[in-house]
């Protein structure tokens, strides 16, 4: 997935499509981060896909994401994760996700209530083939 973020930044659509096809091969669905950073590209590859946008209360969402956002940038995390094959790329992936999110909606590093609202507006502004929006209030 890190390579897909790099390809997206470099603007290599052909390489990005090949990477995404490889990453999602055999799957019938995907959810959450990081796939949401690639919705337009995934819809180019899978034009009949259905996109479901869930909308949460911004304050409750901000409270739930703050601990994750705060702890993914710890300087020692890459060293702790390196011996674990499935997790060694987690810190790099979190950095790419954060960078992509800030670029898409011009958000800063503070995850606050307006962040979710801005993301929802951005998501709805994308031209999806088959978009369904629904509320999510746990």
UniProtKB/TrEMBL annotation:
InterPro entries xref list: P-loop_NTPase, Sulfotransfer_4
Pfam families xref list: Sulfotransfer_4
Name this protein carries in UniProt: Nad dependent epimerase dehydratase
Organism: Colletotrichum trifolii
């Amino acid at each position: 997935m890190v390579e897909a973020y790099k390809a997206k930044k470099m603007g290599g659509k052909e390489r990005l499509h090949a990477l995404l096809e490889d990453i999602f091969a055999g799957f019938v669905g995907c959810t959450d981060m990081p796939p949401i950073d690639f919705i337009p590209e995934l819809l180019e590859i899978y034009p009949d896909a259905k996109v479901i946008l869930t909308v949460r209360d911004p304050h409750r969402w901000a409270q739930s994401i703050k601990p994750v956002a705060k702890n993914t940038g710890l300087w020692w995390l890459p060293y702790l994760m390196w011996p674990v094959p499935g997790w060694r790329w987690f810190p790099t992936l979190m950095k790419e996700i954060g960078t992509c999110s800030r670029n898409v909606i011009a958000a800063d590093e503070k995850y606050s209530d307006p962040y979710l609202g801005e993301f929802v507006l951005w998501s709805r502004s994308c031209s999806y083939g088959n978009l369904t929006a629904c509320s999510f209030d746990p």
